[in-house]
Amino acid sequence: MPSTESILQGVNVLGPVSESQKKILTPEALAFLALLQRSFNSTRKALLERRKIRQAELDKGALPDFLPETRHIRENPTWKGAPPAPGLVDRRVEITGPTDRKMVVNALNADVWTYMADFEDSSAPTWDNMINGQVNLYDANRRQVDFKIGNKEYKLRTDKKLPTLIVRPRGWHLEEKHVTVDGEPMSGSLFDFGLYFFHNAFQTVKMGFGPYFYLPKMESHLEARLWNDVFNLAQDYIGMPRGTIRGTVLIETILAAFEMDEIIYELRDHSSGLNCGRWDYIFSVIKKFRQNSNFVLPDRSAVTMTVPFMDAYVKLLIQTCHKRGVHAMGGMAAQIPIKDDPKANEAAMEGVRADKLREVKAGHDGTWVAHPALAGIAVDIFNKHMPTPNQLFVRREDVTIGQNDLLNMNVPGQITEAGIRKNLNIGLGYMEAWIRGVGCVPINYLMEDAATAEVSRSQLWQWVRHGVTTAEGKKVDKQYALKLLKEQTQELASKAPQGNKYGLAAQYFSGQVTGEDYADFLTSLLYNEITSAGPARAAAKL
């Protein structure tokens, strides 16, 4: 094999590197990143171009359907995904959150079965957030993550086995501009995956689990095939047996819902199941069919998990996963405790109970919470109704889901001015925080991340684009949307500390809510605001 020094030719780091971060950005780790980038970036870019072609077809009125060319995969009952890996047999409650040190300690101390450490939707990808996140996970896997702020100590508990750690890298569409390979920014996906895998693959096996990942934002089985190729090369490179890595795919795009069998098939030696990424899924439905007036949805609060297209998606996901012997994970409970209003808090927690009861009775093998205080509720529900480690034996052979079911937009509800203002508040609140480097924001006692902000701005775009009329009788047009945006910006800014970013957030948001320009992702739109790329330094000389 070529030397590390020769591989690092053409690799530059544009972000500052502190002493504590040097153990992550070693020459050997950077050489591994370069290998991944040179091997797979051209395929990644080709798949992103394929997304654009598919979007153009949808804009002209085409509708997705199950692929005729992969019918043989769907209709072959004999193939299976990989058996559950160590630490992933029982996943009844998973907590998710960003990779800051406090969150890592609190999540690993929570009474849950796994912790999804998130470099994606609940993290703003500043250079410091991404690198310090890697430092924190490196330390956590070596049980060296304890720290102190003032008089408060954060220590990993020693009285029980800690949750299995799963890492979510960024989606295929995002870049890491602080590292370039041969003059091009690194893929954010390969950067996050590569650094974590390189430093932690053998360590996690030693700890009794393995290098496990959640894979976001995929739109086709070809994108899953790319991840599988990445996994194979990575394992071969460090001398790890193939199949040690496991990946759980978030089905959070409408196009992926038509290719769930194929996605598991592509990853079958590495598959640990699928997950219902509910908010991103709703975002995807609006985004993909934004030019089609038949797909206009009412206020976000009316688009629940029991409306026809969401119910069909859940049933098909559970049926598909269990047919292939892999986990079917439920969605997020985004509520956070309302400490100053016991009555409102109990109502919110009752909503969590009902949601988790729906999931376990549907056949899900586990569920997500965003806050440790919700873990107990989810655990109680799943323990009562799922005494087994999982429900892979619940085949859901009663389910028959077709194209019309997945595209059934018969969603009762209205579009209201209150709903518009709520979307504006969520979008502005999230974007303002993201520009400040915070990717997970409590708004109205819900933990909002990029997915919910995307739903908010996409609905606003859709409503203006199709000239809908509110329940109050007001036509939603560009002028009305911008008027309400201005009012909500002023209201939020007046309550926020000096130096807030609401004005800048509103500048970006104003271009996204008028039914005209539509950025592929808010995170891509805003990324340059949080980059701190400085002079290029050769990776070999860090």
UniProtKB/TrEMBL annotation:
Protein family (similarity comment): Belongs to the malate synthase family.
CDD domains from the UniProt entry: malate_synt_A (cd00727)
Subcellular location: Peroxisome
This enzyme's EC code(s): 2.3.3.9
Signal peptide, first to last residue: none
Transmembrane annotation, as ranges: none
First-listed, main subcellular location of the protein, grouped into a coarse class: other
Domain Malate synthase C-terminal: start-end pairs: 414-530
Pathway listed: Carbohydrate metabolism; glyoxylate cycle; (S)-malate from isocitrate: step 2/2
Reaction catalysis annotation: glyoxylate + acetyl-CoA + H2O = (S)-malate + CoA + H(+)
Protein name (database record): Malate synthase
Key words of the record: Acyltransferase, Glyoxylate bypass, Peroxisome, Transferase, Tricarboxylic acid cycle
Enzyme class: transferase
Every Malate synthase TIM barrel domain range: 164-408
Residue intervals of the Malate synthase N-terminal domain: 10-72
GO molecular function, one term: malate synthase activity
